[in-house]
Amino acid sequence: MRELELLIPTLFGLEGLCAEELRRLELPWVRADNGHVCCGARPGDIPRVNLNLRTGERVLLVLGRYEARDFDALYEGARALPWEDFIPQDGAFPVKGHSLNSQLHAVPACQSILKKAIAARLGERYGLEKLPETGALHQVQFSIMRDEVTLMLDTTGPGLHKRGYRAVGVAAPLRETLAAAMVLLSRYRGKDPFCDPFCGSGTIAIEAALIAKNRAPGLNRSFSARKWRWLDSGLWLQAADEAMDREYHGTYDIWGGDIDPKAVAIARDNAVKADVEDCVRFEVADAASFHRDEPRGRVVTNPPYGERLLEKKEAEELYRAFGRAVRTLPAGWQVGVLSSHTEFERTFGKTADKKRKLYNGMLKCDLFLYGIKR
Question: Which residue, 19, 104, 220, 321, has most beta carbons within 10 Å?
Answer without folding.
Answer: 19
